[in-house]
Amino acid sequence: GLRRAVKVQCTWSEHDILKSGHLYIIKSFLPEVVNTWSSIYKEDTVLHLCLREIQQQRAAQKLTFAFNQMKPKSIPYSPRFLEVFLLYCHSAGQWFAVEECMTGEFRKYNNNNGDEIIPTNTLEEIMLAFSHWTYEYTRGELLVLDLQGVGENLTDPSVIKAEEKRSCDMVFGPANLGEDAIKNFRAKHHCNSCCRKLKLPEMRSHCVTQAGLELTSNNPQCLGLTKCWDYQCE
């Protein structure tokens, strides 16, 4: 991992940002991660890394808001990302990221490299379909991976930014594996019933005839005879 996480109880808070008596997770970056990124962020390295992580989780959070508004009623679960805050500890002289502590069975649905579990229930299918949806919704610019959490509540996503797309104001954290993760996800993602309910196109680059014969998108027989499931075939 990239960070160290500690469970703490809040005993006092200003402005009701945190709630007294509640449990929270405080996250700090490992020294080797800070050393690696100090060549890029020469000053306030830890602060910059925390801000990138917060920006990443809030970007994923906004995508869940859009997803939950657009999804059909036949998709029963509504994924949400936890609120994450920036915390400065004066006694330690260090910046941290803090979020509420989740209780229940913690599960991971896919990794930041694009690998995913084989879904066995509707919740798992929805989470994997959400990753697929983020790629289509942003027209291939972003892909939300590393989905993990308790039930519908998620945390620590990786928002993968395609290298050939420019979003200078959205630079995400050190877990971003870029184009390699997108290519791996496109190659390995298996569309499920929730992908079909969302009317998402197949990710893998091939054309399929009505008889089930697979043809490459470079095959001229695809043209006019088959339904193309890859945007590059247009």
UniProtKB/TrEMBL annotation:
<keyword id="KW-0067">ATP-binding</keyword>
<dbReference type="InterPro" id="IPR011009">
    <property type="entry name" value="Kinase-like_dom_sf"/>
</dbReference>
<dbReference type="InterPro" id="IPR051852">
    <property type="entry name" value="Alpha-type_PK"/>
</dbReference>
<dbReference type="GO" id="GO:0005524">
    <property type="term" value="F:ATP binding"/>
</dbReference>
<keyword id="KW-0808">Transferase</keyword>
<keyword id="KW-0723">Serine/threonine-protein kinase</keyword>
<keyword id="KW-0418">Kinase</keyword>
<dbReference type="GO" id="GO:0004674">
    <property type="term" value="F:protein serine/threonine kinase activity"/>
</dbReference>
<dbReference type="Pfam" id="PF02816">
    <property type="entry name" value="Alpha_kinase"/>
</dbReference>
<dbReference type="InterPro" id="IPR004166">
    <property type="entry name" value="a-kinase_dom"/>
</dbReference>
<feature type="domain" description="Alpha-type protein kinase">
    <location>
        <begin position="1"/>
        <end position="203"/>
    </location>
</feature>
<protein>
    <submittedName>
        <fullName>TRPM7 isoform 10</fullName>
    </submittedName>
</protein>
<keyword id="KW-0547">Nucleotide-binding</keyword>
